[in-house]
Design a protein that fits this description.
Length: about 280
């Protein structure tokens, strides 16, 4: 496994994989089994797998969140080496990535204007900016993203459809711990006593799935928001269509329930398919 920190070293390394299909897994590090499942999907699909680890400052709308983001490159590299990843790109600085940026304007058809787009202003602009640069550098055939960040997955699909037609965006199911809590690098920051409260997020999502058979959308969302208030600082609980993330009244289309809430100081998100 090669580890590179500069664009020129990355380019030199990529020459070795010119005739191979490349699978790309962009991450912010502090890797857990969720990230590793993306890597394993990439290994199955592509001939060479490239992982990036970069805590991208432009996608954080909160400096404290950015400064507290957990980093452990040694542990990450150990995990990736075990999986036989080919190349890991850890840019040595944000400037390494952003210095020669030629920004693109992406119309995301409103996908970026709901939920995370409302509560983390500018977040998706930062995601699109960094992925534009990483896609141009790595030139993958496939790129892998988790359903854990479902709205991000839809943003990336929409971006690729317009600007990176040669990259197939592949969504991978959410990995959960034994209690159902969606794995997240931020779980490391949860206080011990907050862990039990975090588990209630998936329980609530599952409850909403059961309610979906009987109750209307608004009743479910109101009920879940009031229940959320009992153990967290809720941001949203919303039911939306799986592709365009629109809110609809009917139940004939495929839909997902989405939740975002702060447990202690830590902001967590999760979602599941409900029909
Ligand atoms: P992050 O390092 O948080 O930016 O995540 C990098 C990638 O891993 C993103 O595509 C995430 O959606 C994905 N990911 C994060 N957590 C999980 C999880 N629990 N299961 C599956 N994929 C995940």
């Amino acid at each position: 496994m090669k580890v590179v920190h500069t664009i020129s070293d990355l380019n030199n390394e990529l020459i070795n994989y010119k005739s191979k299909s490349i699978g790309f897994v962009p991450t912010m590090g502090s890797l857990h089994d969720g990230h590793i499942s993306l890597v394993q999907n990439a290994l199955l699909k592509a001939e060479a797998v490239i992982v990036s680890i970069f805590v991208n400052p432009t996608q954080f709308n909160n400096t404290k969140d950015f400064n507290n983001y957990p980093i452990d490159y040694d542990k990450d590299l150990e995990k990736l080496d075990k999986e036989n990843v080919d190349v890991v790109f850890i840019p040595k600085s944000a400037a390494e990535i952003y210095n020669n940026e030629k920004p693109i304007k992406v119309d995301l058809n409103g996908i970026d204007e709901v939920m995370e787009g409302v509560h983390r202003k500018g977040h998706f602009d930062g995601v699109v900016r960094v992925l534009n640069l990483l896609f141009l550098l790595v030139k993958p055939h496939y790129a892998f993203f988790g359903e854990k960040d479902y709205q991000q997955l839809m943003v990336v699909k929409s971006m690729a459809k317009k600007h990176f037609k040669n990259i197939e965006i592949i969504g991978c199911p959410t990995k959960r711990d034994q209690n159902g809590l969606a794995m997240s690098s931020r779980n490391l920051l949860l206080k011990k006593e907050d862990h039990n409260r975090a588990i209630k997020l998936i329980k609530l999502l599952e409850e909403s799935k059961l309610m979906f058979q009987t109750y209307d959308h608004k009743s479910i969302e109101d009920y879940c928001m009031s229940k959320l208030k009992k153990f967290s600082i809720p941001e949203y609980f919303e039911i939306r269509e799986i592709d365009c993330l629109r809110k609809v009244g009917g139940k004939t289309t495929k839909q997902r329930a989405f939740v975002a809430a702060k447990i202690g100081d830590i902001r967590l998100i999760d979602n599941i398919e409900i029909n």
